[in-house]
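Changelog note: in this version the structure field was regenerated for every chain. One regenerated record is shown below for reference.
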Amino acid sequence: MNHLKNEKSPYLKQHANNPVDWYPWSKKPFVKAKNDNKPIFLSIGYSTCHWCHVMAHESFEDKQVAKLINDNFVSVKVDREERPDIDKIYMNVCQMITGSGGWPLTIIMTPDKKPFFAATYIPKDSRYGIKGLITLLPEINTLWKNKRNELNNSADSITSALQKITLYKEKKELTQKTITNAYEQLLNSYDEINGGFGNKPKFPTPHNLLFLLRYWRKTNNKFSLNMVISTLKQMRRGGIFDQIGFGFHRYSTDRKWILPHFEKMLYDQALLLLVYTEAYQITEESFFKKTAEEIIEYVLRDMKSREGGFYSAEDADSEGEEGKFYTWNYDELNQIVTPEEMDIITKIYNIKKEGNFLPEVGKIINENIFYQILSIEDYAKFYKINEEDIFKKLDGIRKKLFKIRKNRIHPEKDDKILTDWNGLMIAALSKAGRVFNNKYYVKKAEEAANFILNDMTKDNGELLHRYRRCEAKISGYADDYAFMIWGLIELYQATFDIRYLHSAKNLNTYLIDHFWDKDNGGFYFTSDKNEEILTRIKETYDGAIPSANSVSVYNLAVLSRITGDINLEDKARQIIKTFSDQINNMPSGYTQMLIGLDFLFGPSFEIIIVGNKGKKDTQKIIQSINSIYQPNRVVLLKDPDSIDLSLTKLVPYSSEYSQIKNQATIYVCRNQKCQLPTTSIDEMKKFLIENN
């Protein structure tokens, strides 16, 4: 075994038996490289990455390739999910050098960590004009020996260019025009036939959908809402959704959502759960609630740890083949279901003897993906059958197939627990619990939050990033704080347990103290205590997941309104000003940040309920508020019978609020202008809806 044998990361464990003499990222390999006068061969990936597996089997398990690497380089393996700080630095390098990025990421650099070569997947042997490792590695070794000065100059230039990325030009206030421009950019890339944006591959990008829902709320632009509704329905009916076991796959390789890349990520489940929950809040269509509940069923069944936190991901591959766990042979299906059931799934799910992978999405093989070519509603109308009966029959078929599938060899599960992704799931479960009035969902969010706060937080308030097999390790990044704060804010508004609000405030203070750029504004990705690698970067782009700066705009605005601390709202505005140039250049790439900006623009509401949490009149008010789609609002609960003064300490102005005639009383403020208190739910709802 190589030097990865004692690592906890599932990805690093996958490479512990490679003939390549891998080191984990630490001082040791860099000291060795300097002493041996060798460059560093850095490989970055993650456990559920399909092409990482391909490169590993093809090259890193190959003795010929291993000898070339071991003889001429010091090799370092990094799990991008454990060390996103390293990944983000060198992914920026790859994009600068090659114009694109992805995983596996291959970097060759000097012993002082300065890169001079970058690529993604590299085959073992040269093909299709791409140099393979067998050819490439000796060429780089020759350059290292004979043209060292040129490589060092190149590495210095790349490092200098990388350090300039964090320098931001013009700083100015954004206007409503930026939000409108973002909408128009999304509109221009919208696929009216299939839903979603762009051509292929097609990603869910839930924060784009959350942004469009808020745009609809503000402008009453019905097409903005229709884009979201259509996209959510098409995705749920497509192969990107696991029709048998639930949960969403990573992305679709085609524009019709049919053939997915089969890995499942925790963050996708969390962010999509938020969107389906809000879509139900707006439309009250059971389709969206059912999909949200199915996502939760998958997560609680397959991704929940005994400790209370949530696992990271499930692989796309099983038995060395991508998607094998999820696809079905026609004859196999025929033996499992009855002829009547086979007829139903053939018509609804396009099941075929020759397989249903369409020519445009992949090679036709004798396998089937479950995706709805015909909606259940249309099937029921065409065949004049009761919709509810079809739902029951399909659920019975699904359970049969799920039972059979359970006995297959499962894809590998990445069972590390990441604080940032757990924060997203805590936020999503808390919101779903509120909207669906489901205490069980809230309880599961609490279990995860308590685990992070108790087992992944140091006594000084510092978060740790990763937990696996009883070990919490790696200092937290800005994502860990921002996403966890978001989760705790949502959890407070689901439980009104003041502990969660205190924790959110404390984490926010730590984030500002250790991540804030005092000279230029905005949050660095790493704290002033983290290892610095070439430069401290700031993440702003909302890609697969939103950036910490984007989520923090919303968090700061909400905490400011809840606590009355206007300095926090000033910080939110500073973040937007700091990155205003990039946002204006491509506003649709910053939709999560624009969600925070929308909150700041308003209208926004502060609702203070004075009532006993356990009494019916208070619960009715809470449920009524939760039924209304009003994302730009904060809710605070003051229990007049409580002798706990912690709320007053955290929210000083709350001491001024009292009940009317010993009844649960509602105080509503719009854009920091308050209405007279009321005990009438109808009066409150009328004000909220009319001033939405």
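Spot check on this record: The two ends are 62 Å apart (CA to CA). The domain at 176-319+413-601 is CATH 1.50.10.10 (Glycosyltransferase).
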